[in-house]
Amino acid sequence: MRRVLSPELEAWRKEIRAFLDAELPPSHAFNVEFDDAPDRWETALEFSRKLASKGWIGLTWPVRYGGAGRSPLENQVLLEELAAADAPVVNSVGIFLAAGTILAGGSEEQKATLLPAISSMRTLWAEGLTEPEAGSDLGSLRTRAVRDGDDWVITGQKAFTSWGPMSDVLFVAARTSEEASTSGAISIFVVDLRSPGVTLHPMRNFGGGVQSTTFLDGVRVPGEALIGEEGKGWSYIMGAFYSSGTVEPIYSSQEARLQALLEHGDGAPEHGASASSDIAELALMVQAQRLLAYEVVGDNVQGRRTAYGGGVQQVIAKEYEPRFAQFFDRVLGPASQLTADAAGAPLGGAPEAWYRQSFANHAGGTSQLKRMVLATRGLGLPR
């Protein structure tokens, strides 16, 4: 079901797989969104730093900023293999959101300072976008940043902060203008999580991990903490989604899960034609996502911005993640809810973790929101 690429890219894929075979810990179950178990976190961080030592973090970034200057296609292959292996890579906020924003609008000094610290895994980032009354709609942000001399003073509250206690800095979107329009009212700041006035309140979630509510009470940051220009935060965040030229390969993880189920066999209840039909549908959706992803990557290689191909892929991925989990639950029966430490858990207990994680797929916007964006920005339809 995998698209065959050039011999050079297939050789690159083999190199990645050889690295994973040698370096991926035998037991590496890890929820990259909010797993706070100390032993699993240390395992994930150690593995991530091995990736960094290979120069594979920030693969497409310019070499002068700590990257490797490789192509978006090479990066997509890397991301596919990491996803298929369920590799525990941390610091996604730094690698994708923060780095993309810095590349899109940061000053030369910020690029030269902040990006190498991300690619080497020296600085870990947490996300400070979502608020109690502002999720995907950044126009509803209430966190304020006010100038005070050469500094900024930030006050507000952020919700669902993943990796807060483990991270070094917070990527903060704050309102710096009273404009109603999102486009000119939001600015981006980097805030040291050890700064006076920063408080993290732990919040356990249904996925079995901990996120934080982050309180910013008059947090003073220097002027250089503002990334890029004041009021351009929204455009920088949008630019971050294009800077790597790649697409999150959820399809690669889904394909690996489906293959694991097909190879499992023993003890699985028989469901005949019904199961075969479902497997075929899921396999088709994997292939559709892959083709859409490579359309986006190809457009970026050619210097074009895809109108909505990546958005379509995200909608499919978000809507089919729960379907994958529900199908595993039906085929494997009650045993699919056994955790990894339970005797007789099928596939090492992975289906239980997949089921929990599959319904936490709202990060970056729900599928309904993605559909709205496709309609308005992709197809030009009115709101």
From TrEMBL:
Residues 127-206 form the Acyl-CoA oxidase/dehydrogenase middle domain. It comes from the Bacteria. Residues 6-121 form the Acyl-CoA dehydrogenase/oxidase N-terminal domain. InterPro entries: Acyl-CoA_DH_CS (IPR006089), Acyl-CoA_Oxase/DH_mid-dom (IPR006091), Acyl-CoA_Oxase/DH_mid-dom_sf (IPR046373), AcylCoA_DH/ox_N (IPR013786), AcylCoA_DH/ox_N_sf (IPR037069), AcylCoA_DH/oxidase_NM_dom_sf (IPR009100), Mycobact_Acyl-CoA_DH (IPR052161). The keyword Zinc does not apply. It holds the Pfam family Acyl-CoA_dh_M. One of its GO terms (molecular function) is acyl-CoA dehydrogenase activity. Gene3D superfamilies: Acyl-CoA dehydrogenase/oxidase, N-terminal domain, Butyryl-CoA Dehydrogenase, subunit A, domain 2, Butyryl-CoA Dehydrogenase, subunit A, domain 3. Coiled coil: none annotated. Keywords: Oxidoreductase. GO terms for cellular component: plasma membrane. PROSITE patterns: ACYL_COA_DH_1. This is Acyl-CoA dehydrogenase. It comes from Tomitella fengzijianii. The lineage of its organism: Bacteria, Bacillati, Actinomycetota, Actinomycetes, Mycobacteriales.
